[in-house]
Amino acid sequence: MIFDNKNSCMKLITNFFAFALLFSIAQKGYSQDPDFHVYLSFGQSNMEGYAKIEAQDKMGIDDRFQVLAAVNCPETGRKMGNWYTAVPPLCRCNTGLTPVDYFGRNLIANLPKKIKVGVINVAVGGCKIELFDKDKSAEYVATAPDWMKGMLKEYDGNPYGRLVEMAKIAQKKGVIKGILIHQGESNTGDTLWPEKVKIVYDNLMKDLNLDPKRVPLLSGETVNEDQNGKCGSMNKIIATLPKTLANSYVISSKGCTAEPDFLHFNASGYRELGKRYAQKMLSLLGYKFSDNEVPLRVQAPVGFDQLNAGIPSGKIETITYESKTVGSIRKATVYTPPGFNKKKKYPVLYLLHGIGGDEKEWLNGGNPQIILDNLYAEGTIEPMIVVMPNGRAMKDDSATGNIMAPDKVQAFSTFEKDLLNDLIPFIEKKYPVLKDREHRAIAGLSMGGGQSLNFGLGNLDKFAWVGAFSAAPNTKIPKELLPNPEEAKKKLKLLWISCGDNDWLIDNSKRTHNYLYKNDVPHVYYIEPGVHDFKVWKNGLYMFSQFLFRPVDTSSFSKYTILGTQAETNIRNAKYPQILPDNRVVFKVKAPEAAKVQIDLGKKYDLIKDGEGTWNVTTDVINKGFNYYSLLIDGVAVADPSSESFYGMGRMASGIEIPNKEGEFYALKDIPHGDIRIKKYFSKTANSWREIYVYTPPGYENSTEKYPVLYLLHGGGEDQRGWATQGKANLILDNLIADNKAKPMVIAMIDGNMGGSEGFNENALKAFENELKSGAIPFVESNFKVAADAKNRALAGLSMGGLQTLYTGVKNSDMFSYIGVFSSGWWANNKTLSEPQYEFMKNNTAVINFNIKEFWISMGGKEDIAFENCKIMMSKFDQIGIKYKYSEYPGGHTWPVWRHDLFMFAPLLFK
């Protein structure tokens, strides 16, 4: 039975606590450390802790996780106002497990070792939110029911006052970073609840002298309706809290299991809910929820751009300099760091604005001085001078009129000379700065990001640190931007490229990243949620500036991103899967009713469900190139609805294309392209219509010549589509032909599946041979401009197609002059099939060696499942005297290997 009205829910709570009280009675001069993070928590029974504390809840608690006792507990030896290792109970002497327990544990596990976490928990079972409103608290206490009075007495009748009292003690040692609330059951149906919570929050901010922009409030949902929560209807009201209280966040309770009363979470539910509080807080602190990896801050924390009056601040000034390039006196804004000393020499960051800005744009929109001041206070940045010039190098350099006028756009390019010949010499004369390239950085937003890449990478003798935030289309094409990648590898200390995932200019960043990736130039490619605005650019400055002028570890660059890049195999507008810079993959699957979800990429990965019913996982590094995968929902293998589907594994399966710096040979390029034609023909052999994919090379349509043909076969569980879609055969040939590395040819991609029987037995192989000779070849030779003789025919296949090639090609060497066998070989344990083949070869060795000009065998290394069979087969060939060539390319039994096989085999043909 579900109660979703205010009166029935409150009556249940009142009756429960009347009973619970009787049951309980029957059982009964300072230095603030910025690395000690303190969290206040308050609310009613679920925050107080109802579930029984189990053995696991008292084990393995890091002493970096502390609790400030809010009441005296002689039973546990705790005195009010003192800190202790956070062994439960954390609220009062006889309370139970609470979300705060696992909030703290998860924070500690994912924060740097230097950071400690302290919690203060003041909660009263069954109370309304009004109890914590200091202007209404006394009235509430005076009319409180008898079963509540004992709890109130432990707080001297003023829980809010006790919370503030303890918080002030905590502030002598640490810094309050956030507030946790779990309350609402007793206010079920109260639409004014968000406003009432805001009153409490605002009072805490005022009474503790806290900045509301720096201290978020995290509010947990009541037991969810998916767990038959009796007060679950309150969650609709809790969900509106962020509309009333800007810096507040709702923590979902979906899937968090409950006690039989359906009012309280059980121990498992508290552990999960506490983890969710922690995950949100970690993201607000800028850290990844790392799951036992080294803690890493990947984004700016909440409040990073807010003025902190309690720390030293730098100085902003406007300077003027003579520009011989422009022929005028120009302005720039300069930031000098806190404690600036003219006797000390500083590195310099030149920070550039966008097309609609000037030397004041960063100052007006980005608060760089506040961001940097806060970083200095944390000790996470090197002292530096920051110069913010006007990047529009012309006499009238104002951002007025038509900012896209040709002369104004050209002025952004002219600024390179102004920067190098006028501004930098001026700064180095006026300020005490280090003048070598290792102590000079350049970065900018939008148009300024393009300038930074153009000028920085174009003048590596001047800049060792280069950053672009949302680079604009003025960014040079990669080969012009960085014509000598090897020089960049030697000279660059850091190359940073960042952008919002919904920025309309993101393709500029992607293009540059792809080029750098292919050429092994170390760089950070940082994608975050956002558009083309200062939210993204401020975060870019926060992250970039912490790398500057100190040793960097290029091996860690791939970890610095929030989002990955959407896979090219995603369906249109699908955000996931996303590929991280190190080729790990993030999967997200919406399946709220599922009990278990996995991704099968050869290795199975268990996904974790979040509070919204979305399942998440980040994989290990995935093989480059094309990979099949399946989505397993409660054990049923299905195609991922976010991915393109491919016929493979004997069914429609999902596939993901992983970036491959060695995959230039199948990249889509601006060259002449051939066509893939899909044709149907009636097979008299199979007595059915069959489909064939035919690649015709560039120029085929207007040519009068007859082309040679490669008959190209797929593997088991695939069909005629495989080489065209998974294999990218057309692009491989287009590129080879354009580079004059392969002869123009027709490729006929045939369906090797014969009436549903697998191609691993004599009957199936014979059926395929008949189909090829009597059906496919006659159809191709009568419908396409191809030469119809053995010297112009080749036959190749992968895996099952490799067996079909061996069977048909060797027996019919008078029909095929070229044979390619990819990841295949006669099975050593099937002598019934293989021995007759070897006997045929032994008896016809001279003919086979004479007819077959190229007998090419390849494998995907030792991890290829056909590797041992192939080795045994080749040893047999050696004994018999069959001539062949062998090639090996690591990658196993996969499409990346077979693509490379075609790339290597095709240039050998028809010469």
From TrEMBL:
Keywords: Hydrolase
UniProt domain Sialate O-acetylesterase: residue ranges: 36-282
Keyword Hydrolase: yes
One Pfam family from the record: SASA
CDD domains per record: E_set_Esterase_N
SUPFAM superfamilies: alpha/beta-Hydrolases, SGNH hydrolase
Keyword Hydrolase: yes
PANTHER family linked to this entry: DIACYLGLYCEROL ACYLTRANSFERASE_MYCOLYLTRANSFERASE AG85A, ENTEROCHELIN ESTERASE-RELATED
Name the record gives this protein: Sialate O-acetylesterase domain-containing protein
Organism per entry: Flavobacterium limi
